Hints:
By secondary structure, the protein is an all-alpha fold. The chain folds into 2 domains: 3-154; 180-422, MetI-like (MetI-like fold), CATH 1.10.3720.10. It has 19 helices and no strands. It has helices spanning 3-8, 11-20, 24-28, 32-48, 50-62, 72-109, 116-154, 176-183, 185-221, 228-240, 243-253, 260-265, 279-307, 311-319, 324-352, 355-362, 379-388, 393-417, 419-422. Helix 6 runs antiparallel to helix 7 and helix 10 (228-240) crosses helix 13 (279-307). It is flat.
Amino acid sequence: MSDGHRSRHNPKLAMVLSIIFAGLGQLYNRRWIKGIIFIVAEIAFIVTLGSFVNEGIWGLRTLGTIPGEHHSIFLLIFGLISLIILGFTIALYVYNMIDAKKDAERIVRGEEKRSFIEAISHAWDKGFPYVFVTPGLIMLLFIAVLPLLFTIALAFTDYNLYNTPPRKLLNWVGFENFKNMVTLKVWKDTFFSVFAWTLVWTAIATTLQIALGLILALLVNDPRIKFKRFIRTFLILPWAVPAFVTILIFAAMFNDKFGTINRDLLSMINIAIPWLQDPFWTKTALIMIQTWLGFPFVFALFTGILQSVSKEWYEAADVDGGTRMQKFRYITLPHIMYATAPLLIMQYAGNFNNFNIIYLFNNGGPAVRGQSAGGTDILISWVYKLTFELNQYNMAAAISLILGLIVMGFAFFQFRRTRAFKEEGNI
């Protein structure tokens, strides 16, 4: 391009042309092939997906207008898919604008124009990570993000047993479901009861399994202990058995009538505990079972970490007159926590949503008068009952949203405070 053309070339005009229609800015920059590709892509989008996106946005906004003919759930899903497609389209459109402007700026600076082959090679060198990431990102959007968005959307509708498409249409109700959760007695009592037990369950069960794993790891790591390999193998055995098998076995053992705990053990001292009938004893049994299920992983984790603690540190502590407790407090424990804090946080988050043990042991029972949740239901198992047994989809979605925000907030806060996170990249 001549010097006169370069001086008159305007990057802002190139960007404006790309805003008017994708590819026009590239044609203005005399990037003919790239401009034609963008133009064809926009025309193809308008012809093939324009109508779908338009109808999807309409369905998402209205959730249908004719009962019996329009299905609000389908319209909601199509609307969310339209949003995802629209998001991709906007991202490509923005890239088209930026590309046109940068090309124009390079022309003004007098940089040599790349050939088509050179341009392809440069784009591949710069963008090959995005090429390989994009298919996985697309799958993630439709497999994980779309169901998540659908659940979030249901939390703001009136979808329940008495208002089910296609016989009736759904309506957007804003934050009414969340308001009812903490104001209406039928929901308030159950929500706060289940939420309190979920917190207690998470704190006690997880802390006990971590504490038991730590104590056993410290004992087995003691140089005075013999047969370490046999002991470690024996203690990890509960981890080798599938959790659902262990839970079902324990459910039979804790059975009030024929369970071996009442019939064979406690009967010797004339005691019969209502493990499955009294909420307190059911909760106690659940905490003990989770401690049994969870400690082998923590034990294996801590055992591996303890092998990496330098013996020189302990020798230096002995020279300084450090006691066994001081060595544990200032050497062993900080080293363990530094290396395992993220995984321990995951243990708390996992137990907060530990549906399997609650459902398989006693299905969240025993029943509680006046509540839609059982005496040992945690939030996630209550969501299951609301969805598959009571068909209260809107309230289940609202609770799921609250549940997700709590776990995300707790995990993010704890990860930010861990030393491992703060020093990442500096080790």
